[in-house]
Amino acid sequence: AKAAGGDRWQWFDAALDDQAGEAARLTDDLAQALLRDELFLLYQPIVELPSGRRTGVEVLLRWRHPELGLVAPDVFVPLAERSGVIVEIGRWVLENACRQAAVWQHRHGERAPGKVSINVSARQLAEPGFVAEVEDILSRTGVDRTRLLLEVTETAVLEAGAALEAVRELRERGLRVALDDFGTGQSSLSLLLTVPVDVLKVDKSFVSGAAADQAGAVIVEHLIGFTNGLRMEAVAEGVETEDQARRLHAAGYSLAQGYLFGRPVPAAEIEAALLDPAAA
Ligand code: C2E
Ligand code: CA
Ligand code: CA
Ligand code: CA
Q1: Is residue 122 a contact partner of residue 154, using CB atoms and an 8 Å limit?
Q2: Could you tell me which residue ranges the EAL domain spans (predicted)?
């Protein structure tokens, strides 16, 4: 089935069909997706509140399946993790995102789109050679490491000791790390004392999703105090309305991401906005 999804495209959503069969098929096809050049990257702005000025972008992976059309990453990333092909795909994402970041850095210098956030999966992070691979990609692409932010999930860090070690080592080497989807895992706030990170991404369910009721608002307000105390930055995800942005700013948030400020778009659109001072 095709269902209207988070983006402008029609998503193929395996959840609506014969799940096991579809999953097996997608897993097979995914192994070929890289070779067949079916993967591509979009970039979503991360902005300052209240100005809406862009301070960075998050890199979001897309898969255009030859028959099914666009498959949502919420569907194919978990499959790629299960089969292990995420390690190879993740390497491709990192390499291509860094190459793009380097191009922006050279072309636009200070006006470049700021920090480039890249999602790193649990499997990738726990791979023995991951840190060395990051270093290799950094030196080959020439991207400045201070321009990158690696997004990892709490479950990733909790699942494997190796992942935790990788986070520590990346930060020692001057890379910045964000804890993604914060609040959705089983972890407690004490995780942040064990795994120091630079940025907390407060999950969209507390901002605009089903949990964005009174309890969501309380969580959102407490987390900002917490991050301030730990000298971390907080990014509110999934900001869709002016009202949400106003409330977040009032609660102390200075960074946000969401459809209100911009959807994920191809690099060329980010580039066009850079060249148009009115849009910057
Ligand atoms: P995520 O890392 O939490 O990424 C944010 C998701 O929220 C993106 O979904 C984005 O399009 C969506 N989003 C942004 N603003 C809004 C908003 O205002 N409202 C709503 N409802 N949604 C918004 P997307 O692109 O479908 O990605 C889904 C997930 O797939 C990501 O969640 C991430 O966990 C995973 N993913 C995407 N790209 C990669 C990648 O390169 N590597 C890995 N390992 N995972 C990825
Ligand atoms: Ca993310
Ligand atoms: Ca997130
Ligand atoms: Ca997510």
Answers
A1: no
A2: 23-278
